Amino acid sequence: MESLNTQVIVLNFELKGSDFEAAGEASSKIKLVLQQIGIRSDVIRRIAISAYEAEMNVIIHAYRGKMKAEIFSDHTKITLKDEGPGISDIKLAMQEGYSTAPDYIREMGFGAGMGLPNMVRCTDKFDIESSVGIGTTISMTVCHNPLTIVGQ
Amino acid sequence: MSEYFHSVRLIENRCKGCVICAKRCPTEAIRIRGGQSQIIEARCIDCGECIRRCPAHAKTAVTESLDDLNQYKFNIALPAPTLYAQFAPDIRIDTILSALMEIGFDDIFEVAQGAEIVSLAIKDYLKSSAVSFPIISSACPAVVRLIQVKFPELIDNLVPIDAPTEVAGRVARARASRKHGIHPDEIGIWFITPCPAKMTAVKQPLGSEKSNITGAIGISEVYGRLLKAVQDVPAGVERRHASWVGVNWAISGGESLAVGIDKQLIVHEINNVNDILEQVALGKLAGVNYIEALACAGGCIGGPLTIQNRFVAEVNMKLRAENMKAEDTAKGRVPLQEYRESALGANERRAIEPRPILRLDEDIFKAMYKVEVMEKTLQQLPGLDCGSCGSPNCKALAEDIAQGKASSTDCVFKLRERVRDLAKEMIDLAEKLPPSLDKDSS
């Protein structure tokens, strides 16, 4: 994907599995930068929600991960690469309500099985790759002006 | 009138230029310049946190005074339920209302009655299909403004119904005009307010073009005279119309109790409210249906223009509610069961506009550049958030520098570094000798 402008803000975050204290900090930071550059608030909300769900997935399921946000003037791309158990059946994991989160996670109000479906719903482009025992990579793109289609 | 009206003001000769107000401001709207606290108007939400925090009492709120009553033929007081909490629970509301008549008002309409109408209207609203959950209460104007400036994406979650004060003002004016045959413009409607946020809502209404309230008078402004009048007024005159349901809105949780929806979240104190809204914006609070959010700790009883300590006010209010419940049950009185649609003034309502403050530039590329400058600058600042530069924290200074409104040497630590580097260079230079004198160089 080649963007017309070369100007991009890149934000990198290191995520640690089970670090619930820091949970959401990366997504909040991404949201703040989008507000600072004046992106429409409904678009920011979609980016923030998908970023948060993805960030939480790493914290709930994985051992560690890297999160990267590339903010262009017309779209934002967020990539998460984690080292973790991976997902054996991605199709199943994409179903609403399907969750492998243990009970203690659910008691905290997480792991309702809405994470991946929410990410798909909020983004314009969503890709997921996973290898069992190795980890999962998620890549999401949201256009800042919902009328333009990125990558075409 | 300028673009923004603010009721929070500075008493210049009292301001010492300390950074306490700037550091406590939830929207980072204050900078210290030239030894004085200055408000960035676009950012201020009139929450009154700076009034509460200033140790020199240099922050105040402009409110109207009783002298302003002279301009109108007929004056109605709209006491906030918080006013009752300023008095011991054994002083009857009837007596407090009589005292208000005694100090110059011609009639009374309790804001608690407005609260009862709004409670019923919210219940009806919850039944409609166009609701986006979680619903956020719009009763506290400082919270509504916080959403306008920092969480514009949550505007659609706000209850689209006027706050109790506005509803009370509308009903009171129409009623008095009918009853006494006075033109509505000749009637002064005066809200007895616990906070500057509501004062500002009168001058710059949220969700309507023009307020139904003529002016707001701080509780602290009338308290002294009311206290005297309470002793003098004859007992036994019945003036109270609102039930405990409406009166209870003064305490955090009172609104939720009146609305009675399940899965409520009650949050008070502006920084807590900010945290919760942050969570809502990230889609975290999926299990919550209704959020009652109040800018002051404890709810309206913690307002900056109140007299009584908020914990004392809370116990006063709880005891009073108990007394009212017992009395109403004995007399067979029940809380309001129905309301007229006209009380809500749906045709006067306007959309609540976003007022985003975080945007660094109208031009997205300039804004992106400023974000980069801000990030780089922030990495070089010490991160102590001391506030000596006059900005509330290092992040805010980095933003001010990116905006060209401050320089890196405004930071005392950066300044010290520069001085040290310069001093070192001077010492180095002072040790240098011309080759004609330098014995080592031969």
Descriptive report:
The complex is a heterodimer of chains A (152) and B (442). Chain A has 152 residues and is of the alpha+beta class. Chain A has a single domain, classed as Histidine kinase-like ATPase, C-terminal domain (Heat Shock Protein 90). In chain A, 33% of the residues lie in helices and 27% in strands. Chain A has five helices and five strands. Chain A has helices at residues 25-36, 41-61, 90-93, 103-107, 115-122; strands at residues 9-16, 64-71, 75-83, 125-131, 135-143. A five-stranded antiparallel β-sheet of chain A has the order 1-2-3-5-4, covered by helices on one side. The radius of gyration of chain A is 15 Å and the shape is globular. Residues 1-5 of chain A have low confidence and may be disordered. Chain B has 442 residues and is an alpha/beta fold. Chain B folds into three domains: 8-61, Alpha-Beta Plaits (2-Layer Sandwich), CATH 3.30.70; 66-348, no CATH class; 364-431, Electron transport complex subunit B, putative Fe-S cluster (3-methyladenine DNA Glycosylase II, Chain A, domain 3). Chain B is built from 15 helices and eleven strands. Chain B has helices at residues 20-24, 49-53, 93-102, 111-127, 141-150, 164-180, 196-203, 219-232, 244-247, 254-259, 270-281, 310-331, 364-380, 394-402, 412-431; strands at residues 8-10, 30-33, 36-39, 59-61, 74-79, 107-108, 135-136, 187-193, 215-218, 264-268, 290-294. In chain B, the strands form four sheets. Chain B has a four-stranded parallel β-sheet, sandwiched between helices. A three-stranded parallel β-sheet of chain B has the order 7-11-10, with helices on one face. In chain B, a hairpin with a 2-residue loop joins strand 2 (30-33) and strand 3 (36-39). In chain B, helix 3 packs across helix 8 (219-232) and helix 5 (141-150) packs across helix 11 (270-281). The radius of gyration of chain B is 27 Å and the shape is elongated. Classes of the chains: A alpha+beta (152), B alpha/beta (442). The interface between A and B is medium-sized, with 28 and 26 residues.
